[in-house]
Please model this.
Amino acid sequence: MSIDANIVVAVLVAGLIWFWHASMSAREQANRAARETCGRLQLVMLDGTVSIMRLWPRRDHDGRLRLERSYGFEYTDDGYRRLRGFVITLGATVTSVGLAPTPGADDRNGNGDIAPPRRGD
Model:
C-alpha cells in the first residue's frame, strides 16, 4: 500500500469513527427525550430504547448541513396497548417528539397527544 492509499484509509476510518460517535450521541439524546416525554405524560416506554428509522442530510437554521435522524419507540398507556412514538434529531439536538393519537383517550398534554418540540438542552 502506498502512502497515498494509507492516508485515504486513515481518513475513511476517522470518518467512520466520527459517524459512529455522532450517531451514538444523537441516539442518547433521542432516548432521553423519549424517556422524559413518557415520564411526563405517565406513560411506560417499552423496550427501553429507540431505534433508527431514517437518516437524511438536512440544513439547520444556520444553513449548515447536518444529519437528521428519525427514531421510533414503543410505549403503553394502559399496560396492554403498544403505541408508537418518534423522536427527530438534527445533529445531536432533539427537534421534536411525537406520540401516536390514542382513540378515546383524554388529551394528556393539550396538544393532540403530540409533545411540543424541544429546544436544545
Residues 3-99 form one domain. The first strand starts at residue 44 and ends at 59. The helical segments are 3-40.
